[in-house]
């Protein structure tokens, strides 16, 4: 077995990045799912794909397998929400916690409920 050596990192060695510019973010009072999806078509695409997902029956169904991409990270819907909304959204209008929360809740709620899995 190989030994791993831990290296102490000094605060002066850590790169400090400026926070993203959210000065153009829409106010929470102006955010709606419909408005966000019309601005960012990939949100509407994610909605379409999630509406196609059904519980196929069998022993169990786990919504979190799909949402978090446990089986295939390339299809993580949570990562899509992270890319399209929130602090690091490509569109400055959607760079807010409120935009992220609306998208996350709307899209996650489209999944069928977990059944006979460790989640619930």
List keywords for this structure.
120 residues, flat, 37% helix, single chain, mainly alpha, 5 helices
Largest sheet: number of strands, sense, barrel closure: none
End-to-end CA span:
39 Å
Low-pLDDT sequence parts: none
Q: Oligomer, anyone? A: single chain
Gross morphology is flat
For the secondary structure, the number of strands is 0
Structural class: mainly alpha
- Individual helix count: 5
**Helical coverage, percent range:** 25-40%
**Which sequence of SSEs, written as H and E, runs from N to C?**
HHHHH
The fraction of residues in strands falls at under 5%
Give a verbal description of the structure.
The chain has helices at residues 33-39, 41-51, 63-68, 77-84, 97-108. It has a domain at 27-108. It is built from five helices and no strands. The chain is mainly α and 120 residues long.
Concise overview:
It contains 5 helices and no strands. α1 (33-39) packs across α2, α2 (41-51) runs parallel beside α5 and α4 packs antiparallel against α5.
């Amino acid at each position: 077995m190989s030994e791993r050596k831990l290296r102490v990192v000094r605060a002066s060695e850590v790169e400090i990045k400026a926070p993203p510019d959210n000065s153009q973010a829409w106010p929470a009072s102006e955010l709606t799912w419909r408005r966000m999806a019309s601005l960012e078509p990939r949100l509407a695409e994610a909605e379409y794909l999630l509406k196609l997902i059904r519980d196929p029956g069998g022993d169990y169904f786990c919504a979190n397998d799909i949402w978090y991409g446990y089986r295939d990270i390339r299809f993580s819907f949570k990562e899509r929400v992270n890319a399209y909304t929130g602090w690091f959204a490509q569109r400055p209008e959607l760079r807010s916690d409120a935009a992220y929360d609306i998208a996350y809740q709307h899209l996650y709620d489209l999944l069928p409920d977990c059944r006979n899995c460790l989640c619930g």
